[in-house]
Specification:
2 copies of one chain form a homodimer.
Chain A lengths: L1 H29 L9 E2 L5 E2 L2 E7 L7 E8 L4 E2 L2 E2 L4 E14 L5 E4 L3 E4 L5 E5 L5 E8 L6 E2 L5 H5 L6
Pfam families (chains A, B): Cupin_2
Keywords (chains A, B): Dioxygenase, Oxidoreductase, Signal
GO molecular function (chains A, B): dioxygenase activity
């Protein structure tokens, strides 16, 4: 009788393994929704923590926009900065923070859109527990980004707006 | 002996069903990677087939860029058109086509980036078998889009570049 049970038991074991493998493959495939390459690690002093940028579009004299795909490690953020034509931020993945000078910080999630006004100091980055991936669309019509001081831990941890 | 086999066989059947259900759930969850809303169906005559647009950013006098999330049904496409400052297209999902006047059409897939030169007539849309979702970033610094004739079926079906 034992031998009669061997085949079905072996089949069950095989199926369990195959089911698990398929699940793992699905997880690996859908582990990230990354659309654009992560690019190079940012090494300048305008960021705190680990961040990466892949420039997708460089501004030229006729189409004066740059587009970059920026990935922030948990806790990483830009310094305060401003743009003479403002900036557009499109949140693609993870949970991020965005704050304008004089306002509470906002939580950004996949699909959120920010239009930052011209010359208004602001910063953006990842939340403490999640990577954050965003597109930054920056008009260079009236000049380059002005970089300011670092975001303190107190500012980083400050209250956020209700959303 | 038959009754001894009943339990293992029932177990196998149950596991097959459970495995399939999990797979279906995964598929449903990952059926779409949609980041931005599909928006409103486009009803003007500058498109052939079904297309939807969700405007994410409207140009203003200081940040003169518009950003739209455009979804094309299979076979749908824009008419030929040009932009005085060119256009940036970021492919988010599905398989699309992009063609500039005088060049072969290109296949666009998730993560592909196009910088269309100023005043060069071009069109974009979905391939015949797939929806296509793209961001269109359009500088309005030097004026609005110039709309031209429709893309014929022959043009739509023409050869594409190797990629």
């Amino acid at each position: 009788m034992r031998s009669k049970l061997l085949l079905p038991v072996a089949l069950i074991a095989m199926m369990l393994i195959s089911c698990k493998q398929e699940e793992d493959a699905n997880l690996a495939e859908n582990d990230t929704t990354e659309i654009f390459p992560k690019g190079e690690k940012i090494t300048n002093s305008n960021f705190v923590g680990d961040a990466w940028v892949q420039m997708l579009i460089t501004a030229d004299s006729i189409n004066r926009n740059s587009v970059g795909n920026v990935t922030f490690a948990p806790g990483a953020r830009t310094n305060w900065h401003s743009h003479p034509n403002g900036q557009i931020i499109l949140a693609l993945e993870g949970t991020g923070y965005y704050q304008e000078k004089g306002s509470k910080k906002r939580i950004l999630r996949k699909g959120d859109v920010v239009k930052c006004p011209a010359n208004l100091p602001h910063w953006h980055g990842a939340g403490p527990d999640s990577e954050f991936v965003q597109l930054a669309i920056t008009s260079r019509v009236s000049g380059p980004t002005e970089w300011l001081e670092a975001v303190t831990d107190e500012q980083y941890r400050s209250d956020h707006t209700k959303d």
